[in-house]
Design a protein that fits this description.
- It contains ten helices and no strands.
- By secondary structure, the protein is mainly α.
- α2 packs parallel to α8.
Length: 274
């Protein structure tokens, strides 16, 4: 991997970032690869954006919960305006997530500009490689199941449940767009590597980015808000289906984590491809 420093990188590479980069390499079985300022910078920006994304999602959930609660108090007439507010929140979430992705791509582009040459993958990386069938199917099934339950709830005669379902559908649409945008960024941003070791690291980082973006934690969080509030007033098939949905989703997530290859193994397969 290149040992030079990055030009015009703000903030400068800190010793703590280099230390964490070394720990990251060791955790992926790359103990013979030395941490560099380039790698430390790329990993640091990803840690910061993931933290910012978590805070962003928490703020979004709180805002949706407050909006939903306001609609419960003020009645159906006021709910139409609140649905516009939820739509605006979803658009804001997607835009903010896109800005975080842009920040990562910007740092990667500047890191790549410091390389004396560029390496290329021996095979083309697609979503099957960076994400894999199990995670892709699980993410799609999670969104599809949550959407189906929300649409089915619209047929109920309970106005509270129908209002919750509309909130869910708006939120799910925004979250799905966010996942697609993140995956597109992972697949299209340029390679930042100049030798075999740095190329392996680049694959690992790309796989990690895709897997983190596809975890349906946001779906579970948004789905649980209106459901919990309806439990006390309209417990029925919708709530039972939600409980089964959550339990099966968690079990599926655990099985996928246990049975699928680690990021480093995926990278090694890519690098050994003919």
């Amino acid at each position: 991997m290149p040992n030079g420093t990055l030009p015009d990188v703000d903030p400068p590479v800190r010793p703590a970032d280099l230390e964490q980069a070394g720990a990251w390499l060791a955790g992926h079985g790359l103990v013979d690869v030395q941490p560099t300022p380039l790698l430390a910078t790329r990993l640091a920006v990803r840690r910061r954006t993931r933290l910012a994304a978590s805070v962003l999602l928490a703020a979004f959930i709180i805002a949706v919960a407050l909006t939903y609660t306001g609609g419960m108090v003020d009645g159906s007439g006021y709910r139409r305006w609140l649905l516009l507010v939820v739509t605006a929140l979803v658009v804001g979430l997607v835009v903010a997530q896109s800005l975080l992705d842009w920040w990562v791509r910007r740092v990667d582009r500047r890191a790549g500009a410091a390389l004396p040459r560029r390496a290329a993958y021996p095979v083309r990386l697609g979503w099957r490689t960076v994400l894999g069938w199990p995670r892709a199917a699980f993410a799609a099934a999670t969104f599809a199941g949550a959407t189906a339950l929300a649409v089915g709830t619209l047929t109920l005669h309970n106005s509270t449940a129908r209002y919750a379902a509309v909130i869910l559908l708006i939120g799910l649409c925004g979250l799905a767009v966010g996942v697609v945008v993140q995956l597109h960024h992972v697949l299209t941003h340029p390679v930042v590597a100049d030798d075999e070791a740095s190329l392996t690291v680049d694959v690992i980082m790309r796989v990690e980015d895709a897997r983190v973006g596809a975890v349906p934690t946001s779906v579970w969080s948004v789905w649980s808000l209106p459901v919990v509030s309806v439990l006390g007033t309209a417990f029925g098939w919708w709530n039972a289906a939600w409980l089964a949905f959550m339990v099966l989703s968690v079990i599926a997530q655990v099985l996928i984590e246990v049975r699928t290859e680690r990021c480093a193994m995926v990278a090694r397969h890519v690098m050994s491809a003919p």
